[in-house]
Amino acid sequence: MSNPAPATVSSQRALTDGATKRCPQCHATLEFRSHYPILTVGVMLERTGSETGDRMRYERAWVCRNGRCDYRELLGDA
Question: Which helix (H) or strand (E) holds 35?
Fold first, then answer.
């Protein structure tokens, strides 16, 4: 009996935190995160109360584990 393979992805619907695949940039390991923080900086045309141009949002993303690579592949809102 063989050892089970690490959590790899076969479809977008099967994505869970910790799933892995190969980084296209450095060939290290990408890890899937369902709640990856993204700082957005935008120009607002109108100011409406407490809103500001900078804000934090969270998206699903593949993130390279290699600190020197810094590759990220955003998949959009969860």
Answer: strand 29-41
